[in-house]
Amino acid sequence: MNQKEISELRRRIKPEKNAIGRIYGCYVNSRKEIISYIEGSLGTMPQDEAEKYLDLLRKTLSGTPGKNLIDIVFSTQQVVDSEEHRRLMALRDSKLRDGEVRQEFYQKVMDTLDMGDSNYLILLAHDSYDVPSRDKNGDRQADDSDAVFSYILCCICPVKDGKLELGYCPGENEFHNCIPSQIVAPPELGFLFPAFDDRAANLYSALAYSRKADQLHQEFLDAIFHIEEPPMSAGEQKEAFEAALTQSLEKSCSLEVVQAVHERLTQRIEEHKESKDPEPLAVTVREVGGILRDCGVEEEQVDAFCSRCSQQFGEGAALSPANLIDSKRFQVRTGDVTLSMATDRSYLVETRVIDGRKYLLVPVDEALEVNGLPVG
Length: 376
Hints:
Blueprint: H1 3-12, E1 22-28, E2 34-41, H2 47-58, E3 69-73, H3 76-80, H4 83-93, H5 99-112, E4 119-134, E5 140-161, E6 165-169, E7 174-178, E8 182-184, E9 189-193, E10 195-197, E11 200-202, E12 205-210, H6 218-224, H7 234-249, H8 255-275, E13 283-284, H9 285-294, H10 299-313, E14 318-319, H11 321-324, E15 330-333, E16 338-341, E17 350-354, E18 357-361, E19 368-370, E20 373-375
């Protein structure tokens, strides 16, 4: 799914726009026991309560595609005949009304999800969206719908003990310490099924959400989706990319080479941002290999880099530059010193060997300060 499609669904999860009839779920303790079940009509809830439920569900469509929002792709065999896909389809097709299917889903989550010592809330909702058609310019055509998008949203929220606060007690006309019993935190993870690709249902795909980009809860993804190639977190992608560079290039992995890769990928990120293209930015391993060639890296080492990346990410994988580098900062570190600068100033740093010893050189063309004090 691209950002435009995600935003279209996200805008829909509001009291006046959605067609969510009921909220389902259960409250689970740290011992993997269900404390209570949730089944309520949004229409009969107090407005502020209904809005809080919708806000939790809407957060599963927030964050950055490729980091917090991960495309899950099922194989053809899974769609044709697999337990995990049948379960998801049964939840959607029954509009979550089948209690046995819901219970089976809850049990699957409880058996596999690792939330440490935290209690948590599993929330489920079904919505039917009359997808409005758009003209060639992308403008909505009034009272014209191409199809109905039927989908489910799931979010899993930690439930935490409230903190001791000073509160007003009306009966006593005084302030006293009070502790809210249990507080539902924002979702830690969740998913949308099926995906909303090209503004239509794609039964071969889902969209998974993780609040922390470096913690995808692989145990949960494997239990619910069980796809052949589990997604890598942004942190894992960065580590794999850096390992491929250093292990393949060895001594050729110089400051200048890393600067060039960083600058070129940052440039691609900026150009993509300016273009306002809703499709996620991606680069191929071969494109990064081309950058290395431009830096004078030997062909044998470039081939080794491409081979390592194919092993780590899959043959022909498209990589998100934002997951491979920090486009806002360039950092150089030695054992004792760390230099950090804006990416567009990375060219200021260079290495030079003086009297047989390697140095980092940074030109000082403007005022020099030490701990905020100007020095000569």
